[in-house]
Structure formats: C-alpha cells, structure tokens
Design a protein that fits this description.
Radius of gyration: 16 Å
CATH architecture: 2-Layer Sandwich
Oligomer: single chain
Strand order of the largest sheet: 1-2
Helix content: 40-55%
Bound molecules: cytidine-5'-diphosphate, magnesium ion
Order of helices and strands: HHEHHEHHHH
CATH superfamily: Nucleoside diphosphate kinase-like domain
Distance between the termini: 38 Å
CATH class: Alpha Beta
Length: 147
C-alpha cells in the first residue's frame, strides 16, 4: 500500500513501476481514502504502541493506493525493495533508502507474511483480485528450465 506521502509527492506510479519492473504481476489496484475504522483494522497489530495514533492519523489524512502483486517470493522481494522501517537504516536502492527520511513518512506498507497478506487482501479488496498469468511469467519467474 502506498501511503499518502507517496501520492502527495507525485511518486506513486514511479514507485509502483519499480514493482512491475522487478517482474511482479499486479492482480489488484485501488486508490481510496482510508477511514478510521479501516485504518484501525489494518494497523490492529500496532494498537497501543507509541506510534499508533500518529500512524492512524497519517494514513487517514489523504488517499492511498492499495495494490496486490504476485510472483515467486513476492513477500520477501517486496519487503526487501521497500527497505527498513527506519529510512535512516534503509539501504540505498530500496524505496525507503532512496526516497524517505523518517519512519512515519516511509511511503509504503508491505505485508510481512502470507497470513497477514491474506488478511490484508481481504480487507483492501473484499471483491477479490484478478487471477491471471502473463506469458512473460515463464521467462521471469520459472526457477527451473522446462523439461
Ligand atoms: O512498515 P513496516 O512493516 O516496516 O513497519 P512496522 O513495524 O509494521 O510499523 C508500521 C509503520 O509504523 C511503519 O512503517 C512506520 O510508518 C510506523 N512506525 C513508526 O513511525 N515508528 C516506529 N518506531 C515504528 C513504526
Ligand atoms: Mg509492518
């Protein structure tokens, strides 16, 4: 999910294109304004933490872009492309390492496990995603040669 700062800074599609270029397949995409109830569900795991109130405020302030990408090792690949939570620790080449300065404005949320991804996909895309494969996936995604 691209947080409001990505849209405000006019780099939303620039960031999305990184995931596309990596070879991942977009199966859902949506621009929406997040209300408090949705923000609380999405960040339920952080409730009670010192940054929670700020996080909810930031995420509900302005529209976000929610997206689902699929591909081999998608969760690990996306997390690595996004970089460390604290941008000052994020490596150059990662989104946060290239574009962000502080944790609250770190541009992207990325699911951290298959279970959280499944819950988050249901929350953001209650009507489901578009299941398909591209012909190119054979060239970018197969980890062994065809027999
Ligand atoms: O987004 P990520 O999975 O890397 O981090 P998280 O631990 O799940 O925290 C969610 C979000 O809360 C972060 O992306 C930050 O925007 C914010 N946060 C913060 O502002 N200060 C912290 N010490 C920890 C998290
Ligand atoms: Mg997280």
């Amino acid at each position: 999910m691209l947080k409001p700062d990505a849209i405000q800074r006019s780099i939303a599609f620039e960031l999305l294109s990184r995931f596309e270029r990596r070879g991942l397949r977009f199966t859902a995409l949506r621009l929406l304004k997040v209300d408090r109830a949705m923000a609380e569900k999405h960040y339920a795991v952080h409730k009670g933490k010192f940054f929670y109130d700020d996080l909810v405020k930031v995420i509900t302030a302005s529209p976000v872009v929610a997206a689902v990408v699929e591909g081999p090792n998608a969760i690990a690949v996306v997390r690595s492309m996004v970089g460390s939570t604290r941008p000052q620790e994020a490596t150059e080449g990662s989104i946060r390492g290239d574009y962000a300065l502080v944790g609250l404005r770190n541009l992207v949320h990325a699911s951290d496990a298959p279970e959280t991804a499944a819950t988050e996909i249901k929350l953001w895309f209650p009507d489901g995603v578009v299941e398909y494969t591209r012909d190119i996936d054979r060239w970018t995604s197969e980890d062994k040669a065809p027999s």
